[in-house]
Amino acid sequence: QKEVEQNSGPLSVPEGAIASLNCTYSDRGSQSFFWYRQYSGKSPELIMSIYSNGDKEDGRFTAQLNKASQYVSLLIRDSQPSDSATYLCAVNKGNNNDMRFGAGTRLTVKP
Amino acid sequence: NAGVMQNPRHLVRRRGQEARLRCSPMKGHSHVYWYRQLPEEGLKFMVYLQKENIIDESGMPKERFSAEFPKEGPSILRIQQVVRGDSAAYFCASSPPGASGNTIYFGEGSWLTVV
Q: What does the pLDDT look like over A8-32, one tens digit per residue?
């Protein structure tokens, strides 16, 4: 079982729609969860972090965490063409800051 | 993330040569991570280091690859006797000291091409 799993996509949504990205992880001891965005040929950049069960909202982005189900998601409301990128889920491994990434989900937002 | 400095940004090596990639973490950060990304693939963890200490190298290939983070100077990822399959983007990230939950910040990456 992979440590962090994501649907590779591609996920295509029309402009203005909600994009939903999902991630599961294997280490029950993980406490910190992150979503990064990566444009082609560029380095990953942090979008959001979440540490507690429930929802965390930041602008058009909402991260959701369910530790019992070992599941993290990212919702992007009012999707824009500029949101087209690969979205990487990251989870810390165990009780230190050892970080693992999923393979990423490629999102395309069509005008 | 602009504070994590990687060089060179692009490196071309012939098969059998050595590649050295350098990473200077953000100011105040004492933890460094190296990840490899093949074209159209995700980030693969390689190694996690503190100053003068390897915390986790479970993602490092057993042969030809090594990493260090000396007391002074940048972290170095060294690939000996490169092969075409080593062609990839190598990303370095850093985080501050302390307990888990710290965000890691990425450098711009080093693109290695083996010809």
A: 778 999 999 999 999 999 988 888 9
